[in-house]
Amino acid sequence: MTNIRPFRALRPSQESAAFVAALPYDVYSKTEARKYVKEHPYSFLRIDRPETQFDEKTDMYASIVYQKANETFEIMQQEGTLIEDANPCYYIYELTKGCHRQTGLCACSSVEDYLAGVIKKHEKTRAKKEEDRTKHIDVLSAQTGPVLLIYRANPAIQKILELEKKKSPIYDFTADDGVVHRVWSINNPLCVRKLTKMFETVDHTYIADGHHRAASAVRVAKERAENNPHHMGNEEYNYFLSVLFADSDLGIEDYNRVIKDMNGHSRDEILELIGERFTVQSSAERPVRPKEKGQMGFFLSDSDRVHGTWYRLQVKKEYTKKDPVGILDVEYLQREILKPVFGIEDPRSDDRIDFVGGIRGLDELEKRCHNDCICAFALYPTSMEELLAAADADMLMPPKSTWFEPKLRSGLFIHKIERF
Known about the structure:
Elements: E1 4-5, E2 10-12, H1 17-20, H2 30-39, H3 45-48, H4 63-78, E3 82-84, E4 90-97, E5 100-110, H5 111-116, E6 119-120, H6 127-140, E7 142-143, E8 147-151, H7 155-164, E9 171-174, E10 180-186, H8 189-199, E11 205-209, H9 211-227, E12 239-246, E13 252-253, E14 255-259, H10 267-274, E15 278-283, E16 295-301, E17 308-315, H11 329-338, E18 353-357, H12 363-369, E19 375-379, H13 384-392, E20 403-404, E21 415-416
Parallel strand pairs: 6-11, 8-12
Antiparallel strand pairs: 1-5, 2-3, 4-5, 4-10, 5-12, 7-21, 8-11, 9-10, 13-20, 14-18, 14-19, 15-17, 16-17, 16-19
Helix pairs in contact: 4-6, 6-9
């Protein structure tokens, strides 16, 4: 049984929504975040990435940085840029990118469901990122970025959402990247109760994007429950900001890896070691995009970091496993190559690995290898069926196994929680 509830969203005024809404905090590099905030002074990224308001030498995890986020947050409320709804609502959030359209329900999901396994996880989190978002939520006493949840398609729920979409939206704008964002408010008590009851028939929801945001919200909830002598279980901190989509609405893109050193190996040794687990074939194709599951592209830069070679890799079936995670390309790469060859034991904390979302394209991999990295792996996307199978088996995939597009915007819905 899935427990969701409506909430009084703190959200932008209709006139300012397009200027405030920002891509998730972790989509931007440090340089990109600074540039974006400079060019978009009203963007919510000022709050989600408050280090952009300091000198580059400032530690992005320093207390003054989080305090600056809270200060900016308070100012936006005082100026009327962010306004809190008078009554608890659900919100329909529709995103359209080209021919693809997806419709979700913005609601608060239960921390208790997360802890009980009703909300399924499929990825491990990175400790540093989880700590960062925990501090951010704690200092602001607000959840600013929604967790993207999946549920198995339910025609009755979809019918209600489509009927509500016939009303006038409260937001309707096109972002810089061409994605159209439309939002409707559901404040009719009868409709709210009906949706709440319908989701009680949903056995599980699945975290698609936002594992760090969810884990951080849960950590803050536990701390506040311990510090609240009158804890009842229905406080706002017991719920976290989410947008729920039917599995049939979403698509998954590739999520690729770049490596910063060769762990003491020569280039020839790297190719030889990879050849023990893959068939390796150099390719004139640039870049090499995997055509099917079990295939990867591999770029190895020359010593001058100016040139390099693309290879097409094919998994050797004798080294594959049969469990829901073991069969994944991203797990095979971690188990058979990144750990034994490059010495990357834990990709959550090892600074020698970085992750490049599919939206950036494969040319970005080669660009990184001409800059701060040595080599890169281009992966075939994990499928929705693989994600759900891993989560249903209560198994965790390596971090950054899936990239969902288009991205939910931060700052459109904010869930405030009580201070203790």
